[in-house]
Design goal:
- This protein is an alpha/beta fold.
- It has ten helices and 14 strands.
- The chain has an eight-stranded mixed sheet, sandwiched between helices. Strands 3-2-7-8 form a four-stranded mixed sheet.
- A hairpin with a 5-residue loop joins strand 13 and strand 14 (251-256).
- Helix 1 packs across helix 8 (269-282), helix 6 packs across helix 7 and helix 8 (269-282) runs antiparallel to helix 9 (287-301).
- The radius of gyration is 19 Å and the shape is globular.
Length: 329
């Protein structure tokens, strides 16, 4: 394959994230917020760029000050932004969250008439999908029109151009007019993908299963049956599991343990994981080594206050993992 301009094109959600400055209190007691940027593909574009990949983002922002805020940050990070349209009739998305470690992180998403769900087929045709080695898309991207059709088209163009397609299941019920559509719509998207990433909750939802003793295995089987070669199951403090199909409908699994860490904020950990994993994946590393890097980048971010603004660089990852090797030695 000829050299391509970009390593990864991330497509979909972007927002301003307002995180409570006061830690450990409910929203009713918060007096100030720290302003960051967020949205799964936006976080991954920053996370992969900080690790050294050539990252381009296809999202949309409003013709508003919040859009200026998002674009200014991305430009400072040297993520390619020139394919991001501004939608004058829409507003840039916003998220508010209180932080109550170790396990309570309630968030409120403001996505009525948001700009990124307004991505169109024309926006996709203008994007450098064929100039990118990998297209990263999400379940939220197919939650509503016109973004739904645009995302399916992006995956189709990627297949035609020999660009790998990775889907983050990104299960956000608030984004769907009818949450029952999530499973069948995402499974249709996976039929044009090479690999999927998700949590247990997301995999169950994508597989159309309610929680139960055998439900997760059935959901994993349903997702592998779409034709994806690999499913990465994020398990938080239990690490991650790699599922591949043996071609006869029986999934093969490999567990990769997590790095033990004290949690400050879990939001963004999955996007940090995806950033590290995709870095290794694009280097041609074995899947377990790529997942191990994803576990490290995810572990670093859960100790920090926000998402994109706190994605680690490779020297930070090396220092983090070296510390664990020394403690184990």
């Amino acid at each position: 394959m000829a050299e391509r301009t970009y390593d990864i094109l991330c497509m979909g959600r972007s927002s301003i994230d307002l995180y409570a400055h006061q830690i450990g209190v409910p929203m009713t007691e918060v007096t100030s917020f720290d302003a960051y940027i967020g949205g799964c593909p936006t976080n991954v574009s920053v996370g992969t760029r900080r690790l050294g990949l050539r990252s381009v983002l296809l999202t949309a922002v409003g013709a508003d000050q919040v859009g200026d805020f998002v674009l200014n940050f991305l430009d400072r990070e040297t993520v390619e932004t020139r394919f991001i349209p501004r939608k004058p009739d829409r507003r840039t998305s916003a998220v508010l969250m209180s932080i109550q470690p170790p396990d309570h992180f309630p968030l409120t998403m403001y996505r009525d008439n948001c700009a990124d769900i307004g991505l169109t087929i024309d926006d996709v045709h203008a994007a450098p999908i064929g100039e990118s080695r990998l297209l990263f898309i999400t379940g939220t991207g197919v939650s509503q029109e016109p973004s739904r059709s645009a995302t399916f088209l992006a995956a189709e163009i990627a297949r035609e151009e020999g660009t790998s397609v990775v889907v983050d299941l990104d299960y956000r019920p608030v984004a769907w007019q009818d949450i029952r559509a999530f499973g069948p719509t995402v499974r249709a998207l996976l039929r044009g993908a090479d690999l999927a990433i998700g949590t247990e909750e997301e995999v169950l939802a994508a597989g159309g299963m309610a929680a139960g003793p055998e439900s997760l295995d059935k959901a994993i089987g349903a997702l592998l049956a779409t034709g994806i070669g690999v499913l990465i199951l994020k398990r938080g403090e239990r690490g991650a599991t790699i599922y591949t199909s043996d071609g006869a409908g029986r999934p093969h699994l490999t567990d990769v343990p997590a790095y033990p860490i004290e949690v400050l904020n879990v939001l963004g950990a999955g996007d940090a994981f995806a950033s590290g994993f995709l870095y290794g994946y694009l280097q041609g590393w074995p899947l377990d080594r790529s997942v191990r890097l994803g576990n490290a980048t995810g572990a670093i971010v859960v100790t920090r206050h926000g998402c994109a603004n706190f994605m680690p660089t490779m020297p930070e990852v090396d220092a983090f993992t070296a510390g664990y090797r020394q403690s184990e030695g």
